[in-house]
Amino acid sequence: HSSCQNTVIEYMDLDMMSVLIQVKLWRVCDPAQDQCSDAEVTLSPADGRLELVLFHPAASELLAVASVRGLQVWDVTRDTALTGKHTPVCARFSVVFSYFILSQEVRLWDSRKLSSSLTILALHIHCLTDLSTRGTALVPKLALDVSCCEVLRLLQLTDNFIVPISYQVPRKAGQDFHADLYPDTVGHTPAMTAEDWWKGENKQVLSSQRSEASTSSSPLSTPSSSAAPSRSPSSTSGLSSGFLPSPSPSQSSRAIQNMLGPSSKFRHIQGAVLHRDTHITNLRGLHLTTPGECDGFCANGQRVAVPLAIAGGQIAVFELSQPGKLPDTALPTIQNSVNVADFCWDPFDTHKLVVAGDDAKIRVWQIPKGGLTETLTEPECVLRGHTEKIYSIKFHPHASGLLASSSYDLTVRLWNLGTGEEVKRLSGHQDQIFGIAWSPDGKLLATVCKDGKVRLYDPRKSTLPIQEGPGPEGHRGARVVWVCDGKYLLVSGFDSRSERQLYLFSAESLASGSVASVPADVSPSTLIPFYDPDTSVLILTGKGDTRVYTYEILPEAPYFMECSSFHSSEPHKGLCFLPKTECDVRDVEVARAIRLGKSTIEPVAFRVPRVKKEFFQDDVFPETAVWWEASLTAAAWLSGSNGQHRKISLQPKDMTPVSEAPKEVPVRKYLPSSVYLEEKTDEQKKEELLSAMVAKLGNREDPLPQASCEGVDEDEWVSEELTTHTHTPRMIHDTL
C-alpha cells in the first residue's frame, strides 16, 4: 500500500474444501521485531473466485476486490463492502511493465506513446537475464539513488532469487541534482480517508520533491557511495544497491552474495586442447557404433585402447608417451575374436585390459611393456558364466582383481580375476541394466535399469537390492555415479519427453525419489559422467557431442551449480579422464582428459583461471587419494574387510600454498572518474599539447653530435695557393 510505505501487503486465500474465499491483510513489522503470525484484517467477499486486489492511490484503507462475478470496494476497517457488484473503478498508470512467464527478458514500455490503434511503442530498454522471470515489482520512486541518476528499479522474481534491476541514465558524475530526470513525485501521506472518498471527495496525494526525499532514510535506499556505476541504461548494476543500506562496499558485496545464493569457484573453468605435439593423429578404421553402455574407448596414465571397425573385435592400443602421426600400414592389435561390448583398464595394473564380448565371455589381456609390437590372439584368461550378451564391466575401487559385470540375462556378477571364478550373483532387475557403479568406499553397488528403477546392493550381505527407488522415466539409456563422499547418487538419463536430464538421489532414501534434477538438452546419446571427488566437479559429455558440461555438485540446495562449458569444433567419440598426477598444478589444471576424435587422440586440460599462479592453489588441490593403488585383495574384501586409499599432496616442493601467501595492500589501479570527466579550458589543452610535443622532440639545447668530433690543429692547415696546386695529395694525406 503506497500510503503505508509497503507496511501492508494483501494475500488471497482460496479454500476449495469449504468454498470460503478470503482476503487477508498483513502488517509487516520492522526487521528487529517478531512478525505477527495472524493477519491484521480478514475480509470475506464470498462472491466467487478472486482475481485481483488493488489499493486506492489516494485514499487510505480503501481496497478494490475483483472476482469472477463482479467488483467490490472495501474499507478495510469495516466488515462489509462499501459497494456491490459491477462498480466501476478507474486507475491510471503512466508506465506499464510487461513480463512473460518463462521468459528471460524484462522489457520496459511507455503507455503515454499510444497510437489510435493502441499499439504500444517500446522504449528499447531491454535487460536480458540468465534466469526465467516469474514476476516483477516496481520499487517506489522515493527509494531510488538520485546521485547515480537511477530513474527506475525493478525487483525480478525468479525460481530461487529476488534480483534488483537498476535503470540509470548516463550522466556526468557530480553533486548536481538532475531536475529534468526527477520531477516531483507522489508522497506517502494519504490525501483522504476511505469514508471521505465514499462521501464524494476527490483529492490527490501531495507531491514530494525527490531531491529532498533522497536524503531521508528508506528501507530500500542505498548510499551513493555503495552504488556501482551502470555500464548502460539497461545494465543490471542495481545489484549493488541491495535491499538494506551498506556502510562499506565489502559488506555490500557480501549482502549481494547472500541474496544471489552460492557461487562456484569453478564457474569459470576452461577446457583447452593441448598442443598438437601431444596428439596422436592419422587414426583409421575406428569403430564408431559401440553399444550405448560402453564409453567408446578407455585410457589410463600410460596408454589408450580404441576399438576398430575390423572383423573379429580388434582393439588398437597406443602409448601416450609416443605421440605423432601413425603410419598408413596396419598396426598390431588385440584380436578379441567377437564384437566388443565393453572394455576397461585395470586401475591397479596399467598393462591389464579386460574386454567383454557379445558371446557372454570376459577376456583378460596383458599388454607387454613398451606397448604392442605384435598382434595378440590369446588372452591371459577367459571368464565364463553369463548366458547373454554383457552390458558393462566395472572394477572394484579398492580390491585388486575384483570385477563386476552386467548382462542381458538381468544379473550382475562379481568375478575374482585371480582365480577366474564367479564369486557373487546379484538379481532383482526386470529389464536392461543401463549402468553400474561402486560406492567410493567399495561397500555398495548401485545400478540404474530400463524398468525405471535405481537400485542399491550390498553384495556381501544379500543378492537382492537393499534399496530401490524411481529413476529416470526415459528408456533410451542412463548412467550412474556416486558423488559427495558417497552420500548421493547422480544419474544421467532421459525424461518422459526423451530430453537429457541429471538426477540426484540420496543414497539413504532412494524410495523418496530424486532430491534435485537439472535439464541438459535434447540429444540421442546418453551423457557420460566423470566426477572428481577432490573438487566435487562433475564433467559430462555424450558420444557425438561437441559440448562438455561442467557442474559443481553440493550436498545441499541448490545441489547443482553450472560452470562454464567446453566446446569443440568437431564431434567427439567421448572423453576419458586420467589420474590427478597427470595434471599440471602450476597452471591450475584440475582435470586432464583424453579426447577421441574422428581420426585423432588429443589431451584436454581443464584449468581454473587464477591470478597468483606462482603460488600453489591449495583450495582447489586438496590431498588426493591414490586410487591407482589397491588397498586390499579380492579375497580379503569377500571375507568382510574394507580398504582405504592413502592420500598424497600434489604441491611441488618449490611452491608456497596460496593460503600462506603474504597479504598485499590493495593498490588503486585506476584514477578516479572525476579526473577523466573534469572539463579543461582551451588554454590548458594547448599547454598539454605543447608539453607533449617538446617531450617527444627532446631538449633542443643539447649540442649536436658532430660538435663533439675532433678536427686538425691550426698549424696543419696550408695556404690556398699550395692547396690548389702542388700539395693537394699531401694535404689530404696529412689530414686523413
From TrEMBL:
Keywords carried by this UniProt record: Actin-binding, Cytoplasm, Repeat, WD repeat
GO biological process: actin cytoskeleton organization
Low complexity compositional bias, start-end: 208-254
One cellular component term from this protein's GO annotations in UniProt: cytoplasm
Location of region: Disordered: 208-256
Magnesium listed as a keyword: no
Location(s) in or outside the cell: Cytoplasm
Gene3D superfamilies membership: YVTN repeat-like/Quinoprotein amine dehydrogenase (2.130.10.10)
One Pfam family of this chain: WD40
Predominant place of localization: cytoplasm
Domain (DUF1899) ranges: 259-324
Residues in WD repeats: 383-425, 426-458
InterPro entries: Coronin, DUF1899, WD40/YVTN_repeat-like_dom_sf, WD40_repeat_CS, WD40_repeat_dom_sf, WD40_rpt
Gene Ontology MF terms in the entry: actin binding
UniProt-listed PANTHER family: CORONIN (PTHR10856), CORONIN-7 (PTHR10856:SF20)
Family per record: Belongs to the WD repeat coronin family.
Stated role: F-actin regulator involved in anterograde Golgi to endosome transport: upon ubiquitination via 'Lys-33'-linked ubiquitin chains by the BCR(KLHL20) E3 ubiquitin ligase complex, interacts with EPS15 and localizes to the trans-Golgi network, where it promotes actin polymerization, thereby facilitating post-Golgi trafficking. May play a role in the maintenance of the Golgi apparatus morphology.
Protein name: Coronin
Organism ancestry: Eukaryota, Metazoa, Chordata, Craniata, Vertebrata
